[in-house]
Amino acid sequence: MSDSITAFGPASIGNVAVGFDMLGLALAGVGDRVSALRTDEPGVSVAEVRGLDGELHPYLSTDPDHNTASIAARALWNDYGDRHGVELKVYKGVPLQSGMGSSAASAVAATFAVNQLLGTPLPTERLLSYALVGEQYASGGLHADNVAPSLMGGMIYCPKVLLPDMVRLKVPKGISAVLVHPELQVNTADARRKLAKGYSMDQWLEQQAYFGGFIAACAAGDIDLIRKTLKDVIIEPQRVAAVPCFDAVKDAAERNGALGSSLSGSGPSIFALCQDNRASNIATAMEQACRALGIECQSWVSPLDAPGAHIVS
Questions:
Q1: Quick count: other Cβ atoms within 10 Å of Cβ 147?
Q2: 296 and 180 share one domain
Q3: Any idea what DSSP says for residue 56?
Q4: What pLDDT score does 141 carry?
Q5: Among residues 169, 194, 217, which one ends one of the domains?
Q6: 75 & 146 share domain
Q7: 36: Cβ–Cβ under 8 A, 6 or more apart, which residues?
């Protein structure tokens, strides 16, 4: 049993266009790290939070009552920890308010690290409910579409009615996710409050058809059916006004062969699914479309079966 552990929680694509609040996809190559140190002082504290530049973060609090990582870790430690305490150091690799599951990545990394300090660590899937405590504080809602894929990896089906259970779905071979993050911010809690409270039966049936078709397409590896069903006709139209580059970036992705494109979570990040051999060109085209509007950005290409949370040295 070690006295210090560092864990990585990957970023994620929430909703994956068709599955609002119940479908998520882990991203390889970008995420948060959290170090957990056993201390003699009881409770869970945060020693420091550092940003993408390695400097102390100018916005995120070290108050354990107001930090996603410590809130999640404390929930776990209160249930299973000992008379000692835990000190956290948070290293943010996911931009804030990016639509990439920033708060979820911190909550997952912290929970995963602290779990390793327990005498008998819990199975990874048991950590979901604890990481969700931190995510709920940050986003203002109980939804696992960022936390679950960040924790477990791959593409996860995790509707609220099944929590804390979740299902890791089969993903097709030869398909990549491309994600472009414009240098903009969208507050998730605000974006949720602005959504319409009611929808027509026709809208609901259309979106359900796309959702079911997309899951079936992934299971069968049916590329043409993925292209036909990777669509969001309910949430995306309500959110694109907050992302001025959305139409241009989505158009660039689809003109270059993407199977579909939409907002990641509430945005501003935009993702596309595509065949592996098109991913690099599509990422470049999406970036160019964004920069043509005077908005800087960065991009990542990830397999659909990206790993979830894990220990790092």
A1: 37
A2: yes
A3: B
A4: 77
A5: 169
A6: yes
A7: 4, 5, 6, 7, 73, 86, 87, 88, 110, 113, 114, 116, 117
Please check whether residue 311 lies inside any domain of the structure. no
Any residues with CB less than 8 A from the CB of 287 and at least 6 apart, and which? 180, 297, 298, 299
Judge contact between 28 and 307, C-beta under 8 A. yes
- Per the CB < 8 A criterion, the answer to whether 275 and 230 are in contact is no
- Give the per-residue pLDDT at 18: 97
Number of neighbouring beta carbons within 10 Å of residue 65? 9
Closest C-alpha to 175, from 220, 232, 231? 220
Q: Output the average pLDDT for the chain.
A: 95
Q: Rounded to whole angstroms, what are the CA distances from 153 to 1, 93, 209, 233?
A: 25, 17, 25, 27
pLDDT higher than 80, residue 208: yes
Mean pLDDT of the region 165-176: 96
Residue closest to 99 by CA, chosen among 159, 183, 224, 168? 183
Residue type, 78: N
Structural domain count of the chain = 2
**Distance from C-alpha of 252 to C-alpha of 256, rounded to nearest angstrom:** 6
- Please give the torsion angle defined by the CA atoms of residues 189, 192, 194 and 199, in that order, rounded to the nearest 10 degrees: -170
Range of the domain at 26: 4-169
Q: Which of 133, 152, 169 is the last residue of a domain?
A: 169
| 3-class DSSP string for 69-125 | HHHHHHHHHHHHCCCCEEEEEEECCCCCCCCCCHHHHHHHHHHHHHHCCCCCCCCHH
Give the separation between CA 184 and CA 182, rounded to whole angstroms: 5
Asked whether 107 and 131 are in contact (CB, 8 A), the reply is yes
Q: Is the pLDDT of residue 58 over 90?
A: no
